[in-house]
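Chapter review. Work through the record for Helix-turn-helix transcriptional regulator before attempting the end-of-chapter questions.
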Amino acid sequence: MQKANYIEERKAIADRIKDLRIKNGYTSYEAFAVENGLPRKNYWRMETGENFTINTLIRILKIHDISLEDFFKGIK
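Structure tokens for Helix-turn-helix transcriptional regulator:
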């Protein structure tokens, strides 16, 4: 069985993560990562749609004070 890539879905999640960062006044992914104690490279990977853990996503959502439900609204 071939492994699915889910490229479009990962891209939609990545775009939402980037939008949250920008809406919260961070022009640089590096500044956001450093200020919030996240590894810069790992955070950059999330914003570019690379694979990530659910724990990392939850951590980022808690930083932005947004629920999983609100985060995923409108993502198809």
